[in-house]
Amino acid sequence: MSFVSTVTGGRPLRADAERNRRKILAAAAELFALRGIDITLDDVAKQAKVGVGTVYRRFSCKQELVDGVFEQHMADMEAGAADALEVDDPWQGLANFIAFTCEEMAKNRGLGEVFFGCDEGREQIACVRERVEPLVGKLLARAQDAGVVRPDVDANDLLAVGKMVEAFAEFAAPVAQDAWRRYLELVLDGLRAEGTARTPLTVPPLTAEQIAAAKIAARG
To answer: Which residues bind DNA (predicted)?
Structure first.
């Protein structure tokens, strides 16, 4: 997996410089997943066990590092949308893609922030997003043409669905890692056309004790 170019001024990076670059990317990916993108390059340097000057030599700003780490994640979403278009059942293809994106964001706090954030300064991510959006439009149009999705649903509604599920996933993560799946199932039923079958809920709701614990974790 190559996040960013490994050449500087047309010359390959020295072996030690390349090792440091990979350590920095791995450290940043871990921090972004756990804490989101609101971290500093100093945090990344500490996690990677390199000097902060080494980080700045490889990445001039945090936006460049975010771009490098999450370009592949966005490319995975593009591949997921393309795979969903190959599913014979239009509803299943759309549902598979929505579930895939929600699962990726539930596992990676930073990915949700990037996905729903501004692309300014993140050229690589913006380029991938421009390729993903038409595929999502095709998934939705195909399901609507088949009569399995409400005709008044817009592609931007799918963005809202992802944001709602991502927000609940972050809230519930300290007490129930998979609780978001229940609410995805509920929301997907809301997208279905009149008269189509409902999906059985496969995940139990949070208990009162879990909700209280999640609130404490969120406050902390």
So the answer is: 40-59
CATH number, domain 64-219? 1.10.357.10
| Closest by Cα among 72, 59, 66, 60 to 122 | 66
pTM higher than the cut 0.85 = no
pLDDT digits (tens, 9 = 90+) for 115-133: 888 877 788 888 888 999 9
**DSSP letter at 149?**
B
* CATH superfamily membership of 7-60: Homeodomain-like (1.10.10.60)
Tokens of 167: 């927000």
Q: How many CA atoms lie within 13 A of 71 on its CB side?
A: 17
Distance CA 121, CA 116 (A): 15
Angstrom distance (rounded) from CA 16 to CA 7:
13
